[in-house]
Specification:
This protein is α/β, with parallel strands linked by helices. It has a single domain, classed as Rossmann fold (3-Layer(aba) Sandwich), CATH 3.40.50. Helix content is 26%, strand content 25%. The strands form two sheets. The chain has a five-stranded parallel β-sheet, sandwiched between helices. The two termini are 14 Å apart. The C terminus is likely disordered.
């Protein structure tokens, strides 16, 4: 099946800006109602880039509101035997940690929910956040676990056998999301 583009650079930028606004709407400004610090934890590889982009938008909208980090979930996955081997990436937690914080997990594509389940296990080893939310660029459905995103850039119904490829300029030289490509790129969610 030939690849068909579903998001281009401008679409991705709009989605990130909209998600940032939705995160702010869910984060009270009133000092008596503040649920604690906001921490964006990107899931490698493309989730980290998306978390950094979200953080930049949030910094423009509400300076100092969010800290950014990375959360590698490789060793927490329950499907390591079936997935290609990936080199673990470093986990970076902001200096203040995640205890009492509202953590927003950021990933590129939500599919089965297994990556997010692994991320929740990894978070338990890092501390006890006040709340955990999920932001994804693409929700393609086909969940195997009861996991639902709080912030979504694009709902993209797809067939289970299709591939969703997310490419980001920082890693791939272009911003786009295509469906149907089978090039084996790393930003692929089957």
């Amino acid at each position: 099946m030939p690849a068909r583009p579903v998001l281009q650079q401008a679409d991705i930028e709009r989605a990130i800006t909209r998600i940032a606004h939705e995160i702010l709407e869910a984060s009270p400004v009133d000092p008596d109602a503040v649920p604690g610090p906001l921490v964006l934890l990107g899931i490698p590889t493309r989730g980290v880039v998306l978390a950094e982009r979200l953080g930049a938008v949030l910094e423009r909208l509400r300076p100092g509101h969010a800290a950014i980090g990375a959360l590698d979930v490789t060793m927490y996955r329950d499907d390591l035997a079936r997935q290609p081997t990936r080199t673990p990436q470093p986990t970076r937690v902001p200096p203040a940690g995640i205890d009492g914080a509202t953590v927003v997990l950021v990933d590129d594509v939500l599919f089965s929910g297994r990556t997010i389940r692994a991320a929740l296990d990894a978070i338990n080893d890092l501390g006890r956040p006040r709340a955990v939310r999920l932001a994804v660029l693409v929700d393609r459905g086909h969940r195997e676990l009861p996991i639902r995103p709080d912030f979504v850039g694009k709902n993209l119904p797809s067939a289970p056998g299709e591939r969703v490829n997310v490419r980001l300029t920082e890693l791939d030289g272009v911003d786009e999301v295509v469906v149907g490509a089978s090039d084996g790129a790393e930003g692929v969610a089957r």
